Amino acid sequence: MLKISEIVKKTEEMFDLFNEHFYENELTRPAITVSPDGGRGAYGWCSINEIWNASGEKYREINLCAEYLDRPIFELAATLLHEMAHLYDLVHEIQDVSNNGYYHNRKFKATAEAHGLHIEKHNKYGWTITTLTTEAEAWIRENLGEGKINANRLPIEGTTKGGGKKSQNRSIKYVCPCCGTIIRATRKVNVICADCNEPFEQA
Questions:
Q1: How far is the C-alpha of 173 from the C-alpha of 38, rounded, in Å?
Q2: How high is the pLDDT of residue 156?
Q3: If DSSP codes are grouped into helix, strand and coil, which group holds residue 43?
Q4: Residue 46 three-state SS
Q5: Which residues, in sequence order, are CB contacts of 93 under 8 Å at separation 6+?
Q6: How many CA atoms, within 13 angstroms, populate the side-chain half-sphere of residue 74?
Q7: Each residue of 18-62: pLDDT tens digit?
Q8: Fewer CB under 10 Å: which end of the chain, C or N?
Q9: Contact call for residues 32 and 12 (beta carbons, < 8 A)
């Protein structure tokens, strides 16, 4: 039986374990959530602002996107550590991204690589290609094993990886039977080719 609460509990336990080992418990645990990627096309994110309130205490959020939860544990761990690096930089007021949060700069790379990750450069998004270091992977294997979360949210049919709607070509193609000129219309039309004086035919 699927229990989302158990999945969230697992991710919270992973955060606490990583916080102790990689960050010496420096980070305050944010709200850990599991939800669809909302069109971002990302494996996860960390909120810039403190968007949760609990008994007067405010917290940021780290979300792990529900569509990609069932990846191998080492990949999921890399995603969580990636977002923890952002959280560290936010707490320390280190500007590690630009271009509306998409381009990861060398400050992000430095933080991430100081806390268990290896970062390579993406042509468009900067220093964001994330994998575990050999040492971090060995430590996670020893402490978490190789089991994974055996659940994920299925993408909605007719959407892209990021959750947005796939574009659909709704135009109707018409061809002049004489000269072969092609036109398109968004509804059925009666059009005559001015060169040939012939009506266009629906293709």
A1: 34
A2: 63
A3: coil
A4: strand
A5: none
A6: 18
A7: 999 999 999 999 999 999 887 677 899 999 999 999 999 999 999
A8: N
A9: yes
- Distance of alpha carbon 160 from the chain centroid: 12
Instruction: Note the pLDDT tens digit of each residue in 112-160.
Output: 999 999 999 999 899 999 999 999 999 999 999 988 888 888 876 554 4
Q: Do 46 and 90 meet the contact criterion of CB atoms below 8 Å apart?
A: yes
Six token digits for residue 134: 């050999």
Q: What's the confidence (pLDDT) of residue 170? A: 61
Q: Of 45, 49, 70, 48, whose CA–CA distance to 58 is shortest?
A: 49
Closest CA to 174 of 182, 164, 186: 182
Q: What pLDDT, on a 0 to 100 scale, did the predictor assign at position 181?
A: 80
Helices (H), the chain: 4-23, 73-91, 106-113, 134-144
Name the one residue in this structure whose structure tokens are 């990689």.
Answer: 22
**Cβ contact 145:73 at 8 Å:** yes
Nearest to 132 by CA among 189, 79, 55: 79
**CB of 14 within 8 A of CB of 69?**
no
Prediction pTM value: 0.76
